[in-house]
Amino acid sequence: MFRRPRGTRDFTPEEMARRRTVEAAFMRVAHRFGYGEVGTPTFEHAKLFITKSGPGIVEELYAFRDRGGRELALRPELTAPVIRFYLSDLQSRPKPLKVFYLGTCYRYDEPQFGRYREFYQFGVEILGGSPLQTDAEVIATAVEAVQEAGLTGFQVRVGHIGLIRGLLDVDEERKARILNALDKRRVNELSEALEGAGIGDLRDDLLALVEFRGGAEVLDQAQERVGDQEGLHYLRDLGNLLERYGIDDVLFDLGVVRGLDYYTGAVFELHYEPLGSASQICGGGSYTLTDLFGGEPLQTTGFGMGFDRVVLALEKAGASLPEAGLDVYVLPVGDHMRDAGYDVLRRIREAGLSADVDLTGRGPSKNLDHADALGARTAILVGEREWEAGKVGVKDLRTGEQTEVPLEELTSVLGGA
Length: 417
Prior knowledge:
Blueprint: H1 13-32, E1 36-37, E2 43-45, H2 46-53, E3 63-65, E4 71-74, H3 79-90, E5 97-106, E6 118-127, H4 131-149, E7 155-160, H5 161-165, H6 172-183, H7 187-196, H8 203-209, E8 213-214, H9 217-226, H10 230-244, E9 251-253, E10 263-271, E11 280-287, E12 300-306, H11 307-317, E13 328-332, H12 338-350, E14 355-357, H13 364-373, E15 378-382, H14 384-388, E16 391-396, E17 402-406, H15 410-414
Parallel strand pairs: 1-5, 7-9, 13-14, 13-15
Antiparallel strand pairs: 2-4, 3-4, 5-6, 6-12, 7-10, 8-9, 10-11, 11-12, 15-16, 16-17
Helix pairs in contact: 1-4, 1-11, 4-10, 6-7, 9-10
């Protein structure tokens, strides 16, 4: 007996109905904010992801060599492919260029709650534009997307990677090691990296800085610790602008650190604490990748949303998501009424409703049980007497109430087009 690969999942019709609802909510918000959808290949040259994230990502890639000897990899995320696409085909488009995407990603990771080897990512990128305005627009997009899906009670955490970068007067290689250790909160590794760079005396300041979390008052407290840093002024301005978007509960979290070199300014995360260790449902910020990939430097802001974690969060919160089910199940009463049943079936489907019909010749009682098992909301009984009178029986399978409806009024009664 075959089993699915570890770290992957199958989805029932009920689960897919919920996922499609969340997907539709995300796409509505993206369109409302003026983003255009893009799509990229499921696999790319492995070097694309190694260039973006460093050689350490090799262990997490589903990489392979094709028949032409080319080193390829299933995409572990979607930002790098989008920037590659921009450089190859989209540079001539007006700036800022706003794009969004939703697709599967693959990462050879240890499966656990909220973490899979095949997962789904929703994200946006704004290429070009002023950092402050694009940062606010992207954060607002993420917040509204999650709200549109029906989730409440999540945290918006905003920090600034430039605060820490500004304290590190070392080369980029050493800086990357320090940031990565700080991001992972590996204190011993952080101490070694700082000592190796000759700035071991910064350890306490850095560890204190990443603990600042709260309202605007923490920016004043941080300023007392590290001085009058430009990043602190930026965060104040960003908080004020986010209020114009109706986001007035931002949590300034100077511990939001991105260990990758290309992040340059404001960074942010959305958290839903009831998910525990899987609480982060979104992460993003300002970065530059175009120059790393051989193009001219371009200010970019974007985020990657953990689609699967948002669905988990909604389920944890008990949010109301639609279940899969038929609008109508057509039940011809007797084999001699099958042709009439198919006429009714076609009429219902043409009205835009989902409908099915008995395909096995069951009796009325078993057919009603089958309709109920399918999750149908309404059963249409096509009997000889009713048909001769130009009517059909309409039974509400939730209440058990049954009425006779003229055929010409059927679709309007059912709520079809």
